[in-house]
Amino acid sequence: MVPFCSFQIFREEKNVLICLGTVITVFYIIMDIVLYAVLQDTVLSVPQTLPSHAYSPFYPLTVKLIMTDPTSHYVIKPTSEIFDQVTGFSTVFFFITANMISFSHVVIALIAGKFVASECIRDRRFGLLLFEFRTWLDGLDGVVFRSRAKESTYHSHRNSSGYYIDVVCDTVGGFALSFGVLFYLFKYFDKKVVDVPLWTKNGTNGSTNGHTSVPSKKLIFYKVLCYGVMIGLASKCWDMQVDQMEGLFEKPIHDTALTELQTATLHSWFTWCIILFWRLLQGQQLLQYLVVAVCIDKVWEFLNFVQYLGYIVVISLALASYGYIQYVKYLLHL
Predict the structure, then answer these.
(1) Separation between Cα atoms, residue 126 and residue 160, nearest integer Å
(2) 66, 168, 189, 317: which has the highest count of C-beta atoms within 10 A?
(3) Which DSSP string corresponds to 115-161?
């Protein structure tokens, strides 16, 4: 007899990755639907309180939180918050500052980059796990800071030294992953060179006996650089949009009609679309896409696909967001 429930499908690595990716995607979609429903009953310009002592990814909502990428919002932030609540980390280890945690995840990112540069797929995946742990520590440093500052809301303190330290450490972490990918691609295509005919190595783009031209190190560097700059551009644009939208929707307006208009605008489908696209295209999420590409061993194909398309999408979103924000400012007389 054939068992009703068989795990035969999980014997192939590809099927495992597809199932895992499907589960994660469905989870994010469901959570985003819940987030949208909660947002419809929320006024960001009015102080919010947690309905209970337990942590929730939906209370209290802020502009920065609802524009945060799904992985940070639904995985990194909840687990780091719960970890701090259960262990009392920010209280027990009072001598460990948020900046110390930031510096520590830089070291882990460098180690992760070393593993990602390996020719062995298992080593690369282990490096990705280290990098995700680095991302988790990046969330923990914010939890520690808010706990000691007695803050319950998710905001950026742009004029503080901790903000700039966090930005620098995040940037170094992104560089570490990018250089790991770069050195891996160097090694990967160096091995391909021995299989390529001499005339193909000298610049011909044709193919012979199934052999295709191998990209130069200059081209590989250019592809990785393009994606790195794209991450930086998306991060900067996202931060600017968050700052602007905080001024639109978190600032109290002392006029009943304008307050109603402010709330209606926040709850509109167009605002949600802007928010949703930024959740999917901000810098941290672009790093997650790179992590996935490395994990499924398709990083070169991924870099080629997004090289120019990614810039078109990010710049278009930034321009659309800017125009929409200016329009809402005009409506609200801000």
Answers:
(1) 34
(2) 66
(3) HHTSSSHHHHHHHHHHHHHHHHHHHHHHHHHHHHTT--S----TTSH
